[in-house]
Amino acid sequence: MKTARDRRDSRWDAHREQRRAQLVGAAIGAIRRHGAGVGMDDVAAAAETSKTVVYRHFGDRSGLYTAVCESVAAVLLGEIRSATIEAMGAPDGGPRAAVSAGIDAYLRLIESDPELYRFVVHRPLLTQPTGSRTASPPQSADPVNDLVTVIGDEIATVIGDRLRSTGNEPGDAARPWGHAIVGLVRGAADDWLIRPNGMTRERLATHLTDLAWSGLSGLAPHVQEDHA
């Protein structure tokens, strides 16, 4: 009997996860259609259900926001990793090309999905009056900050590998540099989203890569001196 109950529970778990994924997809579609200021009524309409059902699966607006962020983060991180790995392995590639590819992958999300980016980064849904039908679930880690941390660590690995290839031991410098680059790109990307002024994504990626890599190249000798 216990095995039968476990199997039934497992089937319901799979169903709930599938339904949550469908609702996240509907929410993303509603964000693209109505903009970053989308409301829960819009999300429910896109999912062809009621707000009560949405709240049943996510608890409150924060739960839905977190689920959307996690979905976007998984896609973005996958694209950044694929781009940097491909750039590192290309015949004319290398660490600088990998940093450039990672920056371009980040900017590509903004160019192709500006409202979704605004929704994830600027959290407009969380500033709206709550309409929770149930008690809020325990708060999980911030998916945006988690994503920034992972991307910063990825860039730090690229920087560390590059310094070692030139005979410089990065020590503890690669990590803050990697996260500084992420902050640089995010700040410039937010400004570009508001005031593009005709600048293409490719041009912005080039500017940011030049700035980041020129700074790293200038700092490399100091790293060598610090660890000599």
TrEMBL record:
UniProt-listed InterPro entries: Homeodomain-like_sf (IPR009057), HTH-type_TetR-like_transc_reg (IPR050109), HTH_TetR (IPR001647), Tet_transcr_reg_TetR-rel_C_sf (IPR036271), TetR_C_32 (IPR045823)
PROSITE patterns in the cross-refs: HTH_TETR_2
Keyword terms: DNA-binding
Pfam families, alphabetized: TetR_C_32, TetR_N
Highest rank taxon of the organism: Bacteria
Domain HTH tetR-type positions: 17-76
DNA-binding span(s): 39-58
Gene3D superfamilies: Tetracycline Repressor, domain 2 (1.10.357.10)
A Gene Ontology molecular function term of the record: transcription cis-regulatory region binding
PANTHER family with a match to the protein in the record: HTH-TYPE TRANSCRIPTIONAL REGULATOR RUTR, TRANSCRIPTIONAL REGULATORY PROTEIN (PROBABLY ASNC-FAMILY)-RELATED
Name recorded for this polypeptide: TetR family transcriptional regulator
Native organism: Pseudonocardia sediminis
Lineage: Bacteria, Bacillati, Actinomycetota, Actinomycetes, Pseudonocardiales
